[in-house]
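hey so i finally got around to running the thing on that chain from the lab meeting. sorry it took forever, my laptop kept dying and i had to restart like 3 times. anyway pasting the input first so we r on the same page abt which one it is
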Amino acid sequence: MRILEWIAENRFIPDFAEFVAVLARERPPRRVHFVELLVDPEVIAEVTRRLFGETPVPPAPETMPLFLRQSVQFYKRLGYDYCIFVDVPGMGLRFVGKTRRGEDTALFSRGVREWVEESSGVIASWDDFERYPWPDVAGFDYSPYELLSSLLPEGMKLLLNACSGIFEVVSEILLGFEGLAVLLHENRSLVQAVFERVGEITLAFYRQLVDLDIVGGIFQGDDWGFRSATFLSPKDLEDFVFPWHEKLCALAHEKGKSYFLHSCGNIYGVFDTFLERVPIDAFHSFQDEILPVTEFVKRYGQKVAALGGVDLDKLIRLPEADLRRYVRSILEACALRGGFALGSGNSIANYVPLGQYLVMLDEGLRFWG
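ok and heres what got predicted. didnt touch it at all, straight out
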């Protein structure tokens, strides 16, 4: 694969300015730009081991300088114009909730997989709200970002991600989906207060970092929906969720930075209303069974750029020849006029075969000849 030659020779030159100009259709594309919200650390570790010949280190306080260097090397050598850190200990907000644990059976297993208990949360009353250990943004350790300032190569930027989104923190961690549903009817003022506290903390976190020269923007994840609809009613989303994305987007644009949104699920019943309120620069997360990225570009391409779009199920399971044809069809439909970057429809999780991931990138590298 040509991509393996480019990686081995360290030939990719990041150009974040060109990346955002192509997304905005201010500059015609000269190449396919790559994008991911999340590459699982196990995948980065496998690439570091197999393609770079280094022993990968985990993200821990004592290994943070080397972990960051290896991560930046991963993004740079695989052709990305930015790096991003999601769910890395010490590099995002942590809201404490109930968790479950189970065996991780993924291809690149982390041993134990942990996920939040989404039925009932940790806040069900005003007393719970007052006792909750809210994150202290003022006391946050920002030293990893100082390290990154010396590690990023010329042309590369950092996209900020505070980890879980506004709706996700409230629904999955703090109130739980069942708890949220009950409280919307029984104690709506408490729901409002929880959303406001989470929004205020998230906004304050970004304010601490957005002025850094290495920061190119915010890539905020916040899953609002499932296969057929949104979790909340349109009115509840407009009351509780959209105002905070409006503020986060305004902060980024005020500082001359980008604001990208990731949301899984069928959110298209509220998407036009959202775009009228929040002028995001690009949207991410696509499933073919909901709305293929090719159809998204036809419907919304003049309003907002599309990020990713290679359906995760197809990325994992298609034979190589079929995967190449599928990725090529997306590029032919979406990449020629700009407003698009290539990547998975969701993330490069630790169950994505490395070869399949590299095939996707290889097709992007080959597209312009």
